[in-house]
Amino acid sequence: MSVHSDTLQPLVALPNPDQPPSETVLLPVSQERVLKAVGTLDELAQNMLEKSGIPGLAISVVYKGEKIYAEGFGKRAAGSEKKVDPDTVFLLASLSKPVGATVVATQVEKGRIGWDSPVREFLPWFDMGTPWVSDQVTVGDLYSHKSGLPDHAGDDLEDLGYDRRTILERLALLPKHSFRTHYAYTNFGLTAAAEAVAVSAGTDWASLADQTIYSPLGMTSTSSRHADYMAQENRAAGHMKTDRGYIVTDLRQPDAQSPAGGVSSSANDMALWMQMVLNEGMVGDNKVLEKAALLPAVSPQTIIGGPRSMNARTSTYGYGFGLDVRPTGRVKLSHSGAFTLGASTTLALVPDLDLGIVVLSNAAPSGVPEAIAASFLDRVELGMDSRDWLSGYSKIMAQLTAPVGSLVELEKPKDPEPPRATNAYLGHYENAYFGSAYVEVEEGDLVLRLGPKNQELKMKHWNGDVFSVQPFSENQPAGSKSQVRFTWDANSGEARMVIEHLNSEGLGAFERIL
């Protein structure tokens, strides 16, 4: 059967023939549709607060170069009467990455450094474990998470209180994936790249961010220093979920990974930043950065995960930005941020619509920010929610706050093997990656002390030479229950202990030296 072209009727508005096919989107969205979706945000946010129980959140929306919505909901702190407003300052967590990418772009524009510049040109001490990779790894490799470092490399050292330089130096000791072939999300890999950028500019990262992005945009409540966040009067405290609901923690201090997770900002300030990105570096007639320097950051640089079917769209990552294709065919630039100790955030930018939304919350990962943003974009493009986004995202985020350790929810054996005499376990233990550990006696019980924070873990006998500990940190959420296992060398008789929750990369063995 043949069909003549003159009998075909267009189902959608035909595109501008001068527009490149790769930039063509055939499903139109009117301004009326956008404004109607914005009009549902108050109710949407209130419903999400009630369903989730999180204390507070703030939202801003920008459209066609203007901020068209900014509101706060709930309380800055559980038990407080102080309300969240659009100027309330939140921890951004990993929204710091796309913000930081725009800082890097300003220096790329100036020619001080390039996305393809080897990090060692500026940090000669930086070591990836092998000479060739150490010499070749670039700012872009680290900003796109394809350097070969393992997932969240160095975060465990941050939990123990090590400073930025020490953590970056010890990345050399970690086992690596193949260079430039594997996506693995790393806060401290990206931080190393940012450090190189700061050195190229002759200043520290926090000052560079303020000089190049925050101050020029008028982001007066935004900082890359944690002390500035803590000093804000209008500040949203961090919260952790417990059996009694959300409680204030304020335990997260992310200065060591500031370029990756240490920015604090407000919904109003983030609206200024979104406008600049959507306008390709311009704010009104003022140029903050060159489009050519920004474009690589918002372009695919690595594949996050392969598609599960031939029909699936592939998620990619640029330099600090996540990139997806919406069901409507529009490109979405996005990122989320999460601290298990009290922050959950997201942003989504749709360049074709000149539209952006940011959602900031003051609670551990809940799925609420992501669900609000996803519902909003559905309502803009489709006129309705395509699914129950909160149900889906809350299940994903629950994995981040789930307790870790092989002993979680297990009871001590009823007839355990007895331990050795207490003195057999005491001493000073060393590990090249994690540093010193001390097993001591306190009020008759064994205690394990770790890192510069002198993190104290009470050791309870489990079975034989195995003891249970209950670590609590950003990467070991409340309820975690791990084991410490002691062994003795058959020849020297020296003690060795393996700390399970520090052994994800096989580096959790400590040798006793005293």
TrEMBL record:
<dbReference type="InterPro" id="IPR021860">
    <property type="entry name" value="Peptidase_S12_Pab87-rel_C"/>
</dbReference>
<feature type="region of interest" description="Disordered">
    <location>
        <begin position="1"/>
        <end position="20"/>
    </location>
</feature>
<feature type="domain" description="Peptidase S12 Pab87-related C-terminal">
    <location>
        <begin position="412"/>
        <end position="494"/>
    </location>
</feature>
<dbReference type="Pfam" id="PF11954">
    <property type="entry name" value="DUF3471"/>
</dbReference>
<dbReference type="Pfam" id="PF00144">
    <property type="entry name" value="Beta-lactamase"/>
</dbReference>
<dbReference type="InterPro" id="IPR001466">
    <property type="entry name" value="Beta-lactam-related"/>
</dbReference>
<feature type="domain" description="Beta-lactamase-related">
    <location>
        <begin position="41"/>
        <end position="373"/>
    </location>
</feature>
<dbReference type="InterPro" id="IPR012338">
    <property type="entry name" value="Beta-lactam/transpept-like"/>
</dbReference>
<keyword id="KW-0378">Hydrolase</keyword>
<protein>
    <submittedName>
        <fullName>Serine hydrolase</fullName>
    </submittedName>
</protein>
<dbReference type="InterPro" id="IPR050491">
    <property type="entry name" value="AmpC-like"/>
</dbReference>
<dbReference type="GO" id="GO:0016787">
    <property type="term" value="F:hydrolase activity"/>
</dbReference>
